[in-house]
Design goal:
By secondary structure, the protein is α/β, with parallel strands linked by helices. The protein has 15 helices and 13 strands.
């Protein structure tokens, strides 16, 4: 016969064991469910990753902080650009768009480095459609110099003005031992880019002029909050992780499109109003500026271009400068161009071309008025050289026809120089 109270104690112990077993089973079920969810999420993630890669979807961070230029293309990166046009992007290990290159040139290689901004960079088209690739192909096709192979390096970077192009030359291009340096000048924003008070970007280098008109580097951008933040270890590691995953890239792109209007696909807008607005915003490159800020910007731009030429000539490197067309300059409809010129009291859309030609003449650089030549082609053919179906024809950057036509004209020009003859 059990002692008094032992039955209750036994029942209590049994109840505790039962509750303990139930709690253990619950924890096991929760663990299994968590693992199942994690495995399912991982499977979905990797399935999406594979699908995005097979479809060629994804846009990594293409730019990285640079100690000398403020920013430049991120080395060893690839992606697809769809915001305007459609371009498959491959950036080599040295941070230039295009195939891999080495500092040392192979025997017989004649290397041409082309400096410029987004027009030269050409994200809106595939690599083999860019002006740089096209010039290389045409020069090699027409080559009459025995045992010579032309190699064109695309040194263009979006947003660059003459100041950053000079820094790019000094710290990243001269080490490539180019035989020729070409500079594509886009006056509509290059002039503004060079003056801090007009550009307003604290994360890029600028120059000021001393009493003799000599450009003096202002590298205070290195201590600016945007640059220091972008160059931090955390931001660099975050960019590396995102660039390794197409899924993370798409999530980032979606977030930017929701919260940042600048990253959205360019909306289609009426061509006439777009061209008119661009001219009004950059009237100082279509007519003599009347305000001191834009007069200063022009003076600084001219001095920087002269300095760039001087530093190339010091290395025995000839310089070939050409103008990049703005959409209004080469819009195929002459009547629309005349109406915009009349409304803005513009006598010559190529005012800036004349100023740049004068600078090149004094600096001993070769010059070609490409914008003027492109206008003739566009008007005679009736085909727009700027714009894309997904952003609007006739506005924005060069399309494939624009890159191809520019390359054909410049190749014919280069072929007339002794540098390209036997």
């Amino acid at each position: 016969m059990p002692l008094p109270g032992t039955t209750n104690m036994s029942e209590s112990s049994t109840a505790k064991r039962t509750r303990g077993a139930a709690q253990l089973n619950l924890r096991r079920r929760l663990l299994f469910r968590t693992l199942a969810i994690a495995v399912g999420a991982a499977f979905a993630f990797f399935a999406a990753e594979i699908s995005f890669r097979l479809m060629g979807v994804g846009m990594p961070s293409l730019y990285t902080p640079d100690h000398f230029c403020g920013s430049r293309l991120r080395p060893a990166t690839s992606g697809v650009w769809t915001r305007e046009g459609h371009g498959k992007i491959i950036i080599n290990a040295k941070g230039f768009r295009g195939p891999e290159i080495s500092d040392e040139k192979a025997a017989g290689v004649f290397r041409i480095a082309i400096l410029g901004d987004s027009y030269i960079e050409g994200l809106q088209v595939d690599e083999d459609a860019t002006i740089c690739f096209q010039i290389q192909q045409l020069l090699n096709k027409k080559n009459s110099v025995p045992n010579r192979k032309y190699e064109v390096v695309n040194c263009g970077v979006s947003g660059y003005g003459t100041a950053q192009e000079l820094q790019m030359l000094r710290h990243h291009v001269l080490q490539l031992q180019p035989d020729v340096v070409m500079v594509g000048v886009y006056p509509e924003n290059d002039v503004r880019n060079n003056l801090r008070s007009l550009e307003g970007d604290p994360a890029r280098p600028y120059f000021t002029l001393d009493d003799d008109g000599t450009p003096i580097l202002d590298d205070s951008f290195r201590s600016s909050v945007p640059y220091v933040t972008a160059a931090s270890t955390y931001e660099r590691r975050k960019a590396f992780v995102i660039n390794c995953s197409r899924v993370l890239q798409m999530l980032k792109q979606t977030k930017q499109r929701v919260f940042n209007s600048d990253s959205k696909t360019l909306p289609k807008v009426p061509v006439a109003s777009t061209l008119k607005a661009s001219v009004e915003d950059a009237i100082y490159v279509y007519a003599e500026p009347t305000d001191s800020a834009h007069q200063e910007a022009w003076e600084l731009t001219q001095r920087l271009l002269e300095k760039l030429c001087d530093e190339c000539h010091a290395e025995q490197i000839p310089v070939f400068v050409f103008t990049v067309s703005s959409p209004v300059q080469v819009y195929p409809d002459p009547e629309l161009r005349r109406n915009i010129a009349t409304e803005n009291v513009i006598s010559d859309f190529f005012y800036s071309e004349q100023r740049i030609q004068a600078v090149c003449s004094s600096a001993g650089a070769h010059f070609y008025p490409l914008a003027s030549a492109l206008q003739e082609v566009a008007e005679s053919s009736g085909n727009p050289l700027h714009g894309f179906p997904n952003s609007g024809m006739g506005i924005g950057h060069w399309n494939e026809r624009g890159h191809r036509t520019a390359a054909q004209i410049l190749t014919s020009w280069l072929a007339q120089d002794d540098q390209f003859k036997p």
